[in-house]
């Protein structure tokens, strides 16, 4: 395992054999600890590779704020947080690392919590029970009336149907507001002093536009695997949001183009 180097004018030893011996010795030492101390039945050595480590340490360095040289306290706090939350995210997206879709830890935690919690049979559960349970000391949360809940349930589906079909229009908020006032009666909650009718309608439109744009951007960036799976399995694709479909196809074309350039011989 030696070769003659013209630059150094001597025989040079390849470090691969030495590193392999060092790696095997490390696995033997790690195996003795994991199998004896933690009572594990087997070890999947395939998961001990560089790609998951690169993914995880990149999350450590970018947690909360970018820190290329984290200290001990920052590393410990980030490690504790990412040990759980990092498994929720899709790893190695558009990168040259091997796909890392680890999710075992979350299932372990969920099973442990499920065993600890007492089983309570919920009957006649109301939407307002959650609001009441979230009330804090100052009790600033207010319980909406039944008619407000009805208006929201009627307006939101219509907004998500209209927004992709009117996204190219200028002053879309005003157009959506005029349409809602024609098909939904907001008059029972109208107040001359506070103009509650317009306030509620404007708030619903603002929230719907924000979440719709956020969803489209996530699909275009390839961060929404649920929509891609839903579109693939959906039988009647004509009823799906056309803008989201265009965003998904744009993401897929970008990914294919990147793979073509990646596999193209230099």
TrEMBL record:
InterPro entries annotated for this entry? TNP-like_RNaseH_C
Span of domain Transposable element P transposase-like RNase H C-terminal:
48-80
Lineage, top-rank taxon, reads Eukaryota
| Entry protein name | Transposable element P transposase-like RNase H C-terminal domain-containing protein
The species this protein belongs to is Exocentrus adspersus
């Amino acid at each position: 395992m030696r070769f003659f180097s013209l630059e150094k004018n001597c025989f040079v030893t390849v470090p691969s054999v030495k590193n392999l011996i060092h790696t095997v010795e490390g696995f033997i030492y790690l195996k003795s600890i994991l199998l004896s101390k933690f009572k594990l039945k087997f070890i999947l050595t395939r998961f001990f590779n560089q790609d998951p480590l690169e993914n995880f340490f990149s999350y450590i360095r970018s947690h909360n704020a970018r820190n290329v040289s984290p200290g001990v306290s920052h590393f410990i706090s980030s490690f504790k947080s990412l040990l759980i939350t990092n498994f929720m995210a899709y790893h190695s997206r558009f990168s040259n690392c091997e796909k890392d879709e680890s999710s075992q830890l979350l299932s372990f935690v969920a099973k442990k919590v499920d065993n600890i919690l007492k089983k309570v049979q919920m009957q006649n559960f109301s939407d307002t029970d959650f609001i009441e349970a979230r009330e804090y000391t100052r009790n600033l949360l207010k319980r909406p009336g039944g008619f407000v809940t009805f208006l929201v349930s009627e307006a939101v589906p219509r907004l998500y149907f209209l927004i992709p079909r009117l996204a190219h229009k200028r002053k879309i908020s005003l157009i959506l507001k005029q349409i809602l006032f024609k098909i939904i009666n907001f008059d029972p909650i109208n107040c001359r002093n506070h103009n509650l009718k317009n306030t509620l309608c404007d708030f619903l439109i603002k929230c719907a536009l924000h979440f719709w744009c956020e969803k489209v951007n996530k699909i275009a960036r390839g961060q929404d695997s649920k929509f891609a799976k839903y579109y693939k399995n959906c039988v009647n694709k004509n009823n799906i949001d056309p803008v989201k479909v265009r965003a998904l196809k744009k993401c897929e074309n970008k990914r294919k183009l990147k793979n073509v350039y990646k596999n193209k011989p230099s």
